[in-house]
Specification:
mainly beta; 6-stranded antiparallel sheet
């Protein structure tokens, strides 16, 4: 099991995060939750702070953050790609239903905390608005294109928020996270902006966490 540490996220003023959970790839550490019933599969938000450990650049194994997986290759993944350090979301259900991977902001600094967030809303008529990837409050639009990558179809219902097992620290049945996670939120039914979870520090200019004051929805939760 992961160990809890007092490895606080730095914040000059206001809302401080006192605890985090340490995932060790060598111990296959995971946390799991199975929803009793499906929630809104078209609209949700995922937000978490991470501090990377072993990037495993040599083998290229991805760092699995959060996802839902069943046998037969039916999987929805939120991860940091091991080969390059790119923030990545994908959904595979026999074929790729969509995938987005940030290209111009790689995550390779093990001394930094990163705030990673996905605002998921496939009801949007404009394709580029359906899934938005944020790093430290910035919406990144420089994405891998071609092949399996791209936005899902309008009103697509993904695997995340189904009545199945969801895992922290492992995706695709294979890829384990290594490092710290803190202040994790899953919001059912609302695609929030990053300002619901963080803000720019007025003294030092870094992105820092704030207390979430929104609604969680039926399957929403917070892991502190």
């Amino acid at each position: 099991m992961p160990l809890f540490h007092g490895n606080a996220i730095p914040s000059a003023t206001g809302y401080d995060i006192d605890n985090s959970v340490r995932f060790n790839r060598s111990q296959s550490s995971t946390l799991s939750k199975t929803f009793a019933s499906a929630g809104n599969r078209r609209t949700w938000t995922f937000s978490v702070w991470v501090k990377l450990g072993d990037l495993d650049l040599a083998s290229g194994n991805s760092l699995g953050i959060f996802g839902a997986y069943t046998s037969g290759g039916n999987t929805a993944n939120i991860q940091v790609d091991g080969a390059g350090g790119e923030f990545h979301w994908e959904h595979y259900a026999g074929s790729y239903a969509g995938g987005l991977q940030v290209t111009k902001r790689v995550l390779r600094d093990p001394s930094n905390w990163y705030h990673l967030m996905i605002a998921y809303d496939t009801t949007q008529s404009t394709a580029s608005n359906r899934i938005k990837l944020y790093i430290n409050g910035t919406h990144h639009t420089e994405l891998v294109t071609g092949g399996p990558h791209g936005q899902p179809a309008q009103n697509y219902e993904g695997k995340i928020n189904t009545a199945t097992e969801h895992l922290f620290g492992k995706v695709n049945g294979t890829y384990h996270f290594d490092g710290y996670m803190a202040e994790a939120y899953f919001i059912d039914g609302t695609a929030y902006a990053p300002t619901a979870f963080g803000e720019v520090d007025e003294d030092y200019g870094h992105w820092k966490p704030i207390k979430f004051a929104g609604t969680y929805g039926s399957n929403g939760f917070h892991l502190d």
